[in-house]
Specification:
SMc04008-like fold
Length: 92
């Protein structure tokens, strides 16, 4: 499969899509990490670990808390206290 977007612009498009995904997750804190993991196989924590790993591959050091703050839009512990509720329970 050939990508119709030239490489220099492709990186820009991919970066913009990543930022949009992060913003979407930040704007929808009611979506719990456990729900994301169960449905999609990844969660915000996974995304922060990928972010940190990719920075490391490029010789850039970022701590786990700093990477999480990039993804959550606030310190992780603050996000947990404000938004983490656990898995949803289906009512039958």
């Amino acid at each position: 499969m050939t990508n119709p977007i030239p490489d220099p612009q492709r990186t820009e498009v991919e970066a913009a899509a990543f930022r949009r995904l992060v913003r979407h997750l930040q704007d929808n804190p009611e979506v719990q990490n456990i729900d994301l993991m169960n449905l999609a196989g990844f969660c915000r924590n996974c995304l922060s670990k990928w972010y940190r790993a990719e920075a490391g591959e490029r010789g850039l050091e970022i701590s786990d808390p700093a990477a999480r703050e990039e993804i959550y839009g606030m310190p992780y512990e603050e996000w947990k206290s404000l938004h983490q509720t656990g898995p949803r329970q289906d009512h039958k």
